[in-house]
User: Fold SRPBCC family protein from Micromonospora inaquosa.
Amino acid sequence: MAHQLGSRSRRQPAPAHVVWRSLRDPYEAGSRPWLELRDDEVAARVVAGYAPILLVWSSLWPHRPLDRIRFDLTAGLPGGDCTLRWTLTTDGELPSESTLGHLRHRLNYLVNHRLRRSYGQ
Assistant:
């Protein structure tokens, strides 16, 4: 059974299908770069998805291979914004409080700052 380690929901200024594509392929040609990985991180693999409402990534952290990052998208007005929720889960050991704080902070920074700013906000 997966343990939920953290979750946060925030509005994104782009439509759900655009945000979903940005998550599916952060390095897509022609897109604005937003996913800048640190030395202790690796590119996530998409392990599940249903466009444009759900996407699941593998872990960004090689030392935590059983973690998963789930993205749930809810469309706003047609052609308008959307709400994006990230949820970090694990089937592995629970991290220490300091590691957990780091993981949550890092995801929040990548999704609710870097991704959001890539759309001009």
About this structure: The beta strands are 3-12, 46-50, 54-58, 67-75, 82-90. The domain at 3-119 is CATH 3.30.530.20 (Alpha-D-Glucose-1,6-Bisphosphate; Chain A, domain 4). The helical segments are 16-24, 97-118.
